[in-house]
Amino acid sequence: MKKSEIVAALNEKDFSHFYEKADLIRYREKGDYVFIRAIIEFSNYCSRRCAYCGINADNKNISRYRMTASEITDTAEAAVKAGYKTIVLQSGENHKEDKKELGRIIRAIKKNQVAVTLSIGELSYNDLSYFKECGADRYLLKHETSDTDLYRSLHPDGNFEERIKCLRNIKKLGFEAGGGFMVGLPGQTIESIADDLLLLKELQCDMAGIGPFIPHPDTPLSESGSGSTELSKRAMAIARILLPKANLTVTTALGILDPKERDSAFHCGANVIMKKITPDEYKEDYCIYPARFDRTDIIKDRREIERIVVQTGRRPI
Ligand code: SF4
């Protein structure tokens, strides 16, 4: 699809034809399986001040934590026992992070024969290469917006070109590369969403997460309105058409656990869900956008997600 076609599609009054096409491609490439990934938010230390993010370095209303190595590996082991086959290790971007220790944690988790995904911000080529050697399989780094002016205004410590360079390095090193962006950022246009989608294609992302912007009260964007869930689902459907083989994640921001959104979220081309398994004592302090925090019971929560997936006619894996 060309940019003009994507813009026209996103603006269509009746989008059902694109949803059907995306769902057919999803079925052809992925079958009825929905991959359920476990995510451990192991540290909320971050040196950046992204304007939309509740754990940005300027937010003094949260307590900063870093899980110990044994807390991380024990949590991962509990997830493996519950049936998860991918462990996502996520944190803020913290260049003081002990790389050697994180490498040991990755190696320990890999002994369980599961995939390890990292989502820890921009890293140098050498650090990425080190974590690849330690066994990490995938790397998530959303580009957030391809509008370079908007990117600059939202990321006082960031540089769009550096981020894209990092994504290209991730791909070059043989990771499965995950990108993505937010829908409904203040000042974002439909044209720039089309560019976001084309960028995912150009980078040949193996995974992508697309979800609505949700304002966090402790950020400079607290007064902004939320992004549209309908537009987010439309963007997801176009992503499936552009990247037939990619693993596309339904973000929790899209309301996957809200019964009203559940069915439609699964029929816009997505085939992956992430479930937070961060221990209770930490998870309220890992709040990128406002969310409801229920107590974590790794086995019970996994069964509940499996039940929801089955209810929508799909098969959990
Ligand atoms: S979006 Fe990522 S890099 Fe930016 S402040 Fe939040 S955790 Fe840090």
Please describe what this structure looks like.
The protein has 317 residues and is an alpha/beta fold. It has a single domain (3-316), classed as TIM Barrel, CATH 3.20.20.70. It contains 12 helices and 9 strands. It has helices at residues 3-11, 16-30, 69-82, 99-110, 125-133, 148-154, 160-172, 190-202, 229-242, 259-266, 280-283, 298-311; strands at 33-43, 86-91, 115-119, 138-140, 176-183, 207-212, 247-250, 272-276, 315-316. Helix 3 packs across helix 12 (298-311). The mean pLDDT is 93. Residues 46, 48, 50, 53, 55-56, 92-93, 121, 288 line the site of iron/sulfur cluster (SF4).
Descriptive tags:
317 residues; alpha/beta; eight-stranded parallel beta barrel; globular; binds iron/sulfur cluster
Quick structural overview:
This protein has 317 residues and is α/β, with parallel strands linked by helices.
List the helices and strands and how they pair.
Blueprint (H helix, E strand, L loop, with lengths): L2 H9 L4 H15 L2 E11 L25 H14 L3 E6 L7 H12 L4 E5 L5 H9 L4 E3 L7 H7 L5 H13 L3 E8 L6 H13 L4 E6 L16 H14 L4 E4 L8 H8 L5 E5 L3 H4 L14 H14 L3 E2 L1
Parallel strand pairs: 1-2, 1-8, 1-9, 2-3, 3-4, 4-5, 5-6, 6-7, 7-8
Helix pairs in contact: 1-8, 2-9, 3-4, 3-12, 8-9
The structure holds iron/sulfur cluster.
Overall structural class, as computed from helix and strand content, comes to alpha/beta
Number-wise, the strands total 9
Widest β-sheet, arrangement of strands = 1-2-3-4-5-6-7-8
The largest sheet, given as strand count, sense and whether it forms a barrel, is:
8 strands, parallel, barrel
Q: What share of the residues lie within helices?
A: 40-55%
How much strand content do the residues show? 15-25%
Structural domain tally: 1
Instruction: Provide the CATH topology.
Output: TIM Barrel
Radius of gyration: 18 Å
Poorly predicted ranges: none
* CATH level-4 homologous superfamily: Aldolase class I
Ligands in the model, by name, code or SMILES, are: iron/sulfur cluster
- Output mean pLDDT: 93
The first-level CATH class name: Alpha Beta
Instruction: Supply the CATH architecture.
Output: Alpha-Beta Barrel
Distance between the termini: 31 Å
Count of discrete alpha- or pi-helical segments spanning 4 or more residues: 12
Shape: globular
H-E string: HHEHEHEHEHHEHEHEHEHHE
